[in-house]
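Fold it.
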Amino acid sequence: MSAEFSNAYQEILFDNLMSIIKQNFVFQTQLKLAEENNKKIAEIQAKYDELSRAKSSVSESVHEDKTRLQVALNDVMKKKAEIEKELNEKKTEIDSLKEYITKLENIAPSSKLKKLNPEKKTEEVSAEPAPTDLFELKANDGSSF
């Protein structure tokens, strides 16, 4: 081998070695950046999983609260409907009793009504004025001595 060939060979070998070393550096740099990105991705994934679990537990508690409130609302609405029905029944009963009282008042004589309810004013006016004192009546009718 000649010296020129040997020099050219060593120069090419050196150039190739430098290219391989440069590629190795670039590759190691890319690996290091990829590892850092993987760590960041793993941290973000862990945070996402934690938030997802928290959201899930919050959603469950919100759903439980919603269900509890809906049941309570249904109970209150049912009680309200029952009370309104009972109120309407009582109003109907009161109206029918008022009608019955009116019919009885029309049937009963006014003297009985005054005894039962002295505050109630009767529509009928008696033809004779009621005597206020019994002695006056006997003195005026001529039956006294």
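DSSP finds three helices and no strands in the chain.
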